[in-house]
Design a protein that fits this description.
Pfam families: ABC_tran. Keywords: ATP-binding, Nucleotide-binding, Transport. GO terms for molecular function: ATP binding. It comes from Croceicoccus esteveae. With about 325 residues, the protein is of the alpha/beta class. Among the domains are: about 5-85 and about 160-225, Rossmann fold (3-Layer(aba) Sandwich), CATH 3.40.50; about 230-300, Alpha-Beta Plaits (2-Layer Sandwich). The protein has helices spanning about 50-55, 75-85, 100-110, 115-125, 140-155, 170-185, 200-205, 225-230, 250, 275-290, 305-315, and strands at about 5-15, 25-35, 40, 65-70, 70-75, 85-90, 160-165, 190-195, 210-215, 215-220, 235-240, 255-260, 265-270, 295-300. The strands form three sheets. Strands 6-7-8-3-9-10 form a six-stranded mixed β-sheet, with helices on both faces. A four-stranded antiparallel β-sheet has the order 2-1-4-5. Strand 12 and strand 13 (about 265-270) form a beta hairpin. The two termini are about 25 Å apart. The mean pLDDT is about 85. The structure holds adenosine-5'-triphosphate. Adenosine-5'-triphosphate binds near residues 48 and 49.
């Protein structure tokens, strides 16, 4: 894998200020991102996602650790690196009296890219902003303003794009447009790192997923591998007659009785289909032991279940 971004031991401590205690926002975070990958960084509020992005974009000065981007050390060449990075920040912030088209063209110049009206037009059209090119930003709706932020981040053709909570508080239409845009960018080889609270978004878009909590990266894995390794299948057999105890061969199959013996629960598998096979085997064994069941519910754990489990139980749950 051609590594675009390599973060080692990244630590950021915000000092105590005005009665507020010191905060360790990043705690020896390691992360390597390959060229062209779409990586989702998941974490609860205050986990350190924005701080990590800020450090790579030169907005936050790390306390310790190294950031290598495009093979260069951030400490020695941050301007050169910053030119190749696009950032869509969480918060809206621009000159509201500026016109949309000019603001995008200006962003290009800001990063040292030569004027290119054709490129500006393409970016505006891809975000359905072309008709608004002469409108002042202050006259746009919140969703449209967010589109302008994305256009500004794309104006200088970044090779590495950060999207910090790109779809927080946006409507379904913009969310779909965003996903489509990310797909288009994937085709051009742009590397994308997005932070999100929407697990569904990570499930939909990302090749790999990282989970961060309290400044520590708990787990980084291929999305499918993470589901296979940490996913579980659950089944609930509703029994016709309550049972006092299970025959030992059935109990040996991750099965337990609940609700006064009237429901048999199974939890096992590994997210790769093994659980469903074991449930079929369990059903066969129940028939063999003349245990009648009247209903069966099967559910697979989602990325969300895995995420919640990891954040609640820490890195130990990943092993
Ligand atoms: N400038 C700052 N000064 C002091 N503390 C800060 C500063 N910026 C962030 N923090 C603290 O650092 C921790 C990590 O914050 P950060 O914004 O990086 O988390 P996040 O994962 O992006 O959260 P969210 O999902 O809520 O945006 C939090 O405890 C936050 O309060």
């Amino acid at each position: 894998m051609d590594i675009v971004l390599d973060i080692r031991g990244l630590t950021k401590q915000y000092p105590a200020r005005g009665g507020a205690p010191a905060v360790t926002a990043l705690d020896h975070a390691d992360l390597a991102i390959g060229k062209g990958e779409i990586f989702a960084l998941l974490g609860p509020n205050g986990a350190g996602k924005t701080t990590l992005i800020g450090a790579v974009c030169g907005l936050v000065r790390p306390t310790s650790g190294t950031i290598m981007a495009f093979g260069k050390d951030m400490r020695h060449d941050w301007r050169g690196i910053r030119r190749r990075i696009g950032l869509v920040p969480q918060e809206l912030g621009f000159d509201i009296f500026e016109k949309v088209g000019r603001s995008i063209a200006f962003s290009r110049g800001l990063f040292g890219a030569p004027a290119d009206p054709g490129r500006v037009e393409t970016v505006l059209r891809s975000l359905q902003l072309w008709d608004k090119r002469d409108a002042q930003i202050r006259t746009l709706s919140g969703g449209m303003k967010r589109r302008v932020l994305i256009a500004k981040a794309l104006a200088h053709d970044p090779e590495l794009l950060f999207l910090d909570e790109p779809t927080a508080g946006v409507d379904v239409e913009l969310r779909r447009d965003m996903w489509r845009l990310i797909d288009t960018l994937r085709d051009t080889g742009t590397t994308i790192i997005l932070t999100t609270h929407y697990i569904e978004e990570a499930e939909e878009m990302a090749d790999r997923v990282g989970i961060i909590d309290k400044g520590r990266i708990l787990l980084v894995d291929d999305k499918a591998a993470m589901m296979a390794r940490l996913g579980r299948t659950e089944a609930r057999f509703t029994l016709a007659e309550p049972l006092a105890m299970l025959p030992p061969p059935i109990a040996a199959m991750n099965a337990t009785l609940t609700q006064g013996g009237s429901v048999l629960c199974y939890r096992g598998g590994d997210g790769s289909g093994k659980g469903k096979q074991e449930i079929a085997e369990l059903a066969r064994m129940l028939v063999e032991h003349d245990i009648v069941f009247t209903a069966l519910d099967v559910s697979e754990s989602s990325l969300e279940d895995i995420f919640v489990n990891l954040v609640e139980n820490g890195a130990g749950a990943a092993r």
